[in-house]
Write a structure and sequence with these properties.
About 80% of the residues lie in helices and about 0% in strands. It has about 200 residues and is an all-alpha fold. About 35% of the residues are buried.
Amino acid sequence: MDLGIIGQAAGLFAVTNIDDILILALFFAQGAGHRGVTRAIAVGQYLGFAAILAVAVAAAFGATFLPEDAIPYLGLLPLALGVKAAVQAWRHRHDTQEERQAAEGGPRPLEVAAVTFANGGDNIGIYVPVFATAGAGGMSAYAVVFLILVAVWVAAGRYFATRPAIAKALSRWGHILLPAVLIGIGALILVEGGAFGL
């Protein structure tokens, strides 16, 4: 692999996925104290990002799985998950921190995948022209670098969620922040894409 392509791929991934670190940290905070959280989040992140890559690669070769007009409606996924998390937080608002964490459970892989995919709708639009001009070899290099960096992003999200000051803030406010961030992402995707004539 060409070092130039590796550097470009790493830079492109970092720029298009910087917001995922916050979301991953919130997922880790949600799953604090539960077994298998790292695995569930990693599996979900890989599933969601693999779907982003599959759509971008197919579109670079001229196939389209999602019509351009459908992409803004991906915002409904994080919006629905955010509303679900908000309802759960409201139901358990008088619980202690330990009771709330036990009731929430950890994030499920498909929830993480849905948020990753929906949040990556704009990534697809950026990746398609890059992949189309990179050719099959360049596209493969980008995909390999991206998939390696997904693990780095999961580790970074876990790292931030376990820093004492951040962990304390997330354990205290995470049950409010996660729904707010998910609803905000969903609304932003819907509004920026012009869904429902917004």
